[in-house]
Specification:
Length: about 90
């Protein structure tokens, strides 16, 4: 299979763009790792921070619904305080 000159040029352009984006992605990953290390050095729990970031990305209604279900399950298993039941009733 042989590519025409314009297809070869297009392929080179696409490959170069992908390579550039991969480099940017690696740089961003390194930056994120550095910020999490800084947070940990300052006494923050990085696992909790990652959970906070994940939660903040969610739609508010979906998040509230998931929290209500989780609270209900925890209460049913005796793992939630009495205030959790009030939160479920309010939701």
């Amino acid at each position: 299979m042989s590519l025409h000159s314009s297809a070869k040029d297009q392929l080179h352009t696409i490959v170069a763009r992908i390579e550039r984006l991969e480099e940017e992605k690696a740089a961003l990953a390194a930056d994120l790792k550095e910020v999490y290390a800084e947070a940990k050095a300052n006494g923050f729990d990085t696992k909790a921070l990652k959970s906070v970031i994940r939660i903040r990305k969610q739609d508010e209604e979906k998040r509230k619904e998931e929290e209500a279900v989780l609270t209900t399950y925890l209460h049913a298993l005796g793992m939630a305080d009495d205030g959790a039941e009030d939160e479920v009733a309010a939701a």
